Amino acid sequence: MTAPTAYAGVRYLVDDVQAAVDFYTRHLGFTSLTTAAPAFADVVRGPLRLLLSGPASSGARATPADARTAGGNRIHLVVDDLDAEIGRLRAAGLTFRSDVTAGPGGRQILLADPAGNLVELFQSA
């Protein structure tokens, strides 16, 4: 096994790599590392490296057909002010996949990227 790097990597399968890069960099504070659209790009935010794999990428081709749809898994992004983030993202024309949910640990809401992958925005209690 190779040595760990500074980032934890998560792969999302996307239909349109450039649309995904634009979504994450414009709206969620990610920085683009590599763009080899239409096949692949990766973006980072803190220690998270998000690998965006289009249909032509090796990562997408290696995925069984019955596992290619977006599921209940999601990345979890901590925000300081959930209500302000919701307002900012709604003003940018984005829609949410859930209402705000509150629990003992805090509050959260789900947003979907252009391919339907979920992003949880979370504010600690």
TrEMBL record:
It comes from the Bacteria. The keyword Metal-binding applies. One of its GO terms (molecular function) is methylmalonyl-CoA epimerase activity. InterPro entries: Glyas_Bleomycin-R_OHBP_Dase (IPR029068), Glyas_Fos-R_dOase_dom (IPR004360), MMCE/EMCE_epimerase (IPR051785), VOC_core (IPR037523). PROSITE patterns: VOC (PS51819). One of its GO terms (biological process) is L-methylmalonyl-CoA metabolic process. Keywords: Metal-binding. Pfam families: Glyoxalase. Residues 6-124 form the VOC domain. This is Glyoxalase. It comes from Spirilliplanes yamanashiensis. The lineage of its organism: Bacteria, Bacillati, Actinomycetota, Actinomycetes, Micromonosporales.
